[in-house]
Amino acid sequence: ILYVVSSASNKKQRDLIRSTWGSPVLFANNLTRIIFLVGTPSDDAIKKQLDEEFNIHKDIVQGDFEEKDKSDTKKSVLGLKWISEHCQEAKFALKANDNAFINVFGMISMMETIFGNNRTILCPLWGENTMPILRDPQKCGGYCVKEEDFPGQKFFPQYCAGVGYCFSASLAKELYEVSQKTESFWIEDVYTTGVLVPKL
To answer: What pTM was computed for the model?
Structure first.
């Protein structure tokens, strides 16, 4: 199962994925499915466009939360929930952002070699003491982290870069369940792979 975190207004990105690395034609002989995770937009035109898109492609999963900046974590958790409820037979899950280009068959081949039924996560990794936590509004642009988040820490915990990461699909349910007991944090890759994964 491929699940892509997308902004409701990003139809062009979704269409590009559908015509390239996420094309159903590529997976005609492979039991692979792609879904796009979005929030609920306030703009009526975007709502209508999403409805039309769903009616054509049947690949949109919409969350009951407002579509806005910093909602990627909610979308990713929605993806974990959806996979755990609808994809119990899936072997692998691949999470991507809608601005990514993924060599899906390369990833599937690598996953079949590395995985089995284990707890491995395949990703580009930011290691311990690598990614500083930005708190100074003069320097952090749109990525300022409040003092109450990761208090007393100068660096994020080890985590996977959110552009794309793969894991055994059996972990989706566990990650979702842990997320329901763990305070959310708006930087999706840090939250999912740096906060939730160590709690498994």
So the answer is: 0.94
